[in-house]
Amino acid sequence: MTRSEGPAVRRRGPRGQLALLAAAAALVGCGEEAAVSTVAGRALVDGEPAGGVYVVFHPPATGEGPPIAVRTADDGTYSKTLPAAGEYAVTAFWPAVIEREEETVEGPDRLRGRYRSPGRPALTASVAGGKNELPPIELKTR
After folding, report:
1. What CATH code is carried by the domain that includes residue 101?
2. Residues 6+ apart with CB under 8 A from 58
3. Residue 36 confidence class, pLDDT cut points 50, 70, 90
4. Is residue 4 part of a domain?
5. Higher-confidence residue: 100 or 44?
6. Is the pLDDT of residue 139 over 50?
7. pLDDT category, 22, cuts 50, 70, 90?
8. 118: burial class by Cβ within 10 Å (0-12, 13-18, 19+)?
9. Which among 96, 55, 91, 58 is positioned nearest to 73, based on CA atoms?
10. What is the DSSP secondary structure assignment for residue 129, as one 8-state letter?
11. In the chain, pLDDT over 70 holds for what percent of residues?
12. Which domain holds residue 111?
């Protein structure tokens, strides 16, 4: 018999399988521990709850990763898990919804970019470990 070309397959006994399962479980556990803070709140536009607003959390200056966005429900509420506690600049944008033939797309920001800069955030949030209820994000169209 000739050996076929390709990757070699190595069979593992019960000890090897247990070691692989333990390593996989450890990796899954690591991912869960990283998610330490949950934020929840509400976005108001001109004093009214607004659905479809994107609330964006910009991580602390320590460079904890990319911004994290969540879209508000019809009643203006949102909830999101953040990777770390700290001071977050919270920005927002509210795209117009455009329906064309058989598709729905997001259009220009109804807030005209007023709340999109992390340098001038709509809110600065001090996020602690665990659950955090944030004050309403007050946005204005004018």
Report:
1. 2.60.40.10
2. 67, 88, 89, 90, 91, 118, 121
3. confident
4. no
5. 44
6. yes
7. very low
8. middle
9. 55
10. S
11. 73
12. 36-139
pLDDT at 13 over 60: no
Torsion angle, alpha carbons of 108, 51, 105, 39, to 10: 90
CA distance 115 to 96: 15
Q: Total domain count for the chain?
A: 1
Q: For residue 122, what are its two tokens?
A: 């709509």
Is residue 25 in a domain?
no
Distance (Å, whole) CA 134 – CA 34 = 21
Q: Measure the N-to-C terminal CA separation of the chain; round to a whole number of Å.
A: 80
Query: CA-CA distance, 123 to 90, in Å (whole number)?
Result: 5
Q: What is the mean pLDDT of the chain?
A: 82
For tokens 């949950």, name the residue.
Answer: 38
Residue scoring higher pLDDT (4 or 96)? 96
**Paired tokens of 44:** 């108001």
